[in-house]
Amino acid sequence: MQMTKHGILGSLFAIAVHGGNAIGGELQVFTSDQAGFNTHSIWYDDGQEVTVVDTQFTPAHAESLLAEIRRQTKSPVTRVIVTHPNPDKFNALSVFHQAGAESIASVRTAAAMPGVDAYKRYFWVKIAKAFTDETYPKLEPVKTTYSGNKVITLRSGETITLFELPQPGVSSNQTVVRIDKSGDLIVGDLIHARNHAWLEGGIVDGKPVPSLAGWKSDLQELLKLGQGKAYGGRGAFLPVPKAVAQQTAYLDKADAIVGAYIRRLGDKAPELVDPAKQGAHHAAIQAEFVKAFPDYAMPDLIGYSIYGLVQQKLGN
What we know:
- By secondary structure, the chain is of the alpha/beta class.
- It is built from nine helices and 14 strands.
């Protein structure tokens, strides 16, 4: 059969779109609205099935994610991977389970989820009063767990590899998903390129436990895992070395800003844990972050999350 020039181009396009061995599948991004914290869920279509990374904060956001996937591909969603135990990564597992998808997380992430759910549920229902016990998303357990590394062979024959990082990062436990064909890394909130970070820390035994040292150590691990782009939970997508350098510099500056603020308070430092006074201090710290990073998006993340880093530095 004779192949025309148009036919050759069409075949190459089909390989690119449908995950042929020459090029690989397609990596796509869904971003929630502000109510879902502008959270990215990354999804990979190998031409025969779709793998989603992180579920979104509510079932409604997850339904929007699945609707977007269905508009773009006929490939079924077969699995969802949870990168770390924060609610916008696991709260909507029920939607994926109802759709017949497998769910995967590390043993440690799966074990941490109930405690994180209880902590966050209390905040959103009792403190923020944005939900009731009935309307806050119900926690569902992960179906499949792993420890260390896990290689997943897709229907196309491509592979993706899950790496459990050795240190706590943005949370108490962290999985990185590598698209083996391209070397792209999907890292959850470990990276917020050109976007302010969530500095609360992982929730351990009902308390926030930030670890900037662990976070920076995990960032260095990324340099060993892939040289494609780093797809973080919020913000832009940058080549892995650039993303690592930017996030590391941000964490160093965050450490310096909070430490200097506490030192300036001197004897008034206990106001940082006084419910009647801490809000003004958190706002002032947020303003300093904005001054240091004037082009970064979502500064409100600092005001909401900085208490974790502050409490750590105060020894509380």
